[in-house]
Amino acid sequence: MINKERAKEIIDRFREKKVLVIGDLILDRYLWGEVERISPEAPVPVVEVKKETVNPGGASNVAWNISALGASVYMAGVIGDDEAGKLLENLMEERNINPITVVDTDRLTTEKTRVIAVNQQLLRIDRESREKLSDYVSRVLIQKVNESLKDSDAVIVSDYGKGVINERIMEVLKKSGKPVFVDPKPSNFHLYRGVTTMTPNRKEAYECIKMERTAPVEDVGRRIMEKLGIDTLLITLGAEGMALFQGNNAPSRIPARARKVYDVTGAGDTVIAVLTLARISGATWEEAASLANYAAGYVVGEIGTATVEPDTLYKLISGEYM
Question: Is 153 a catalytic residue?
Answer without folding.
Answer: no
